[in-house]
Design goal:
heterodimer, A: 324 residues, alpha+beta, Cyclophilin, 2 domains, 6-stranded antiparallel sheet, 4 helices, B: 291 residues, Gyrase A, domain 2, 7-stranded mixed barrel, 4-stranded antiparallel sheet, 8 helices, 12 strands, 26% strand, CT_A_B (chain A), hydrolase (chain A)
Chain lengths: 324, 291
Amino acid sequence: MPVNVVSAGFATTVQDLGRPGYYHLGIPMGGAMDRFALRSANLLVGNDEGAACLECVFMGPTLEFSEDAVIAVTGGDLPPKIDGEVKESWSAIRVKAGQVLSFDYLKSGARAYIAISGGIDTPPTLGSRSTYAIGALGGVEGRAVQAGDVLPIGAARRRVDEGRSLHAALRRSPGSPAELRVVPGLYWHRITEAAGRTFFDETWKVASEADRMGYRFQGGSPLEFVDREPPFGAGSDPSNITDACYPYGSIQVPSGTEPIVLHRDAVSGGGYFMLGTVISADMDLIGQLPPNTPTRFVKVDMQTALDARKDRAAMLDRVRAALA
Amino acid sequence: MTSRFTFGADEHIFVEVSEEMSLEAFFKTLSMTNAIREAGIDGITEICPANASFQIKFDPDVIHPDDLMTRLQQIEETAAQADPVLNTRIIEIPVYYQDPWTHETLMRFRERHQDPEATDIEYAARINGYDSVQDFIAAHSGAPWFVSMVGFVSGLPFLYQMVDRDRQIQVPKYLRPRTDTPRLTVGYGGCFSCVYSVRGAGGYQMFGVTPMPIYDPTQRTSYLSDFMVFFKPGDIVKWKPVDRAEYDRCLSEVEANTYQPRIRDVQFSLDDFNRDIDGTNAKLMEALYAG
């Protein structure tokens, strides 16, 4: 059952839960920036929770359906419209053959997920349909969706009722200012104690350079480094290291000025020091931060990270139970 | 050489074998990551070796981060005793130095460079004390290189030259990274050479370009039909300077899918290398060009 792409919106890509296992070759796990939203969208329409959806940024696509389907839109608040009539987000919506799905303006967040019953059935590469455009993997011919594309859709797994929705208490969005919890580590010892304090005390803002590879932040003070002789191979800037691996969520600060948090399409390594890592439970939130969002980095320890991870898992279990 | 272990929040352990680059650090990284792979520890999802460090990604729902940390620290003790001997392959890679495409790109990004009046290779030759670009190319292509990391983006190799430290080339990265780099550019940053596997952003100095694809997601390239990524850590590379005519000839073979890189199996012993660097490299060249 193909879906015709009338217009693509902005940076609309096919995403699922990604392709782990190839980071040692510089191929990142990829997949939805907001995995909770992707899973919820799939569960709403009766798909496997890791089925491929469309991830769209700021602006939605316009899609024409050639057969009846059930869809759901989750994530940032991007109101869906069927033949021009506004429908509920985070709900199962029935679409008939010939109808057109379009979107109103984004009200909050940054990324929305469009699940279609049966899931998007583009060919997987290295075990995933996720689009990794730099490496020309997944998606439609290894790239973002374009007007004129015809998206293949799989067979629906089960029938679900129109209107079933996910209670607002089971959705999650960043607060204001957004708070990203960080475990300090990696090359934390490279900055002075005062610089470390300032980093967590100040409010940063999401820069315009914020995409699937990483989110840049601005507005805080430049970091001060502990003096040292540069180690052989690192390069002479105090923020340089001998090129190493980068954890997902790690915060690198080239030249000590603008922190960059690496995300799902991260470069796997490079030569900048990192001061710590955003905890796994808060990674979904980052993808929902539009440029200029005030953001605080909050220093936490490992136990807090593990507790937060358990909370996220419990919340996902409640979503599964609600939509079983 | 005692390693530094640190957490990357709740899903990563990062291990810095050494702050500075050396073949000893690379070999320790290799033996530790091999030992960790062989240990088959439940919960480890990825093992990523890099130059003088490595990273483990794990699922903390399966193994507690502190328990995994303890296991890895125990493995360090046994891995330190592994023989630094490698059964690997040596590969000849043609390089068209000072090509027109990287030249066009570097001219576009001159304002991000340390020396806007010179090209990248002129700058690198000068700050490394070479009298001419030709002498610099002779040094860059004169001794082989180790692939000490694969990563950054799809299959990009970082390479470390197999010469004593006095002869190693060092260059800074661009002051601000470029937003564009031609595909298959041979680059340089810190003490590492690289080949940009795909077009994209980059901060390394640009010296030339190779006609030989090293990443092919379609796997149509004959020597990439088994897997889309060409390089793996431990591969040894010998650059072969080529002129425009030879570059074009290689490229037409690549396009006809008849290009076959020169590859030979070799054994490398770090101890033998340290005893006699030039002698070891000469033997590697014999193996590469035999038959």
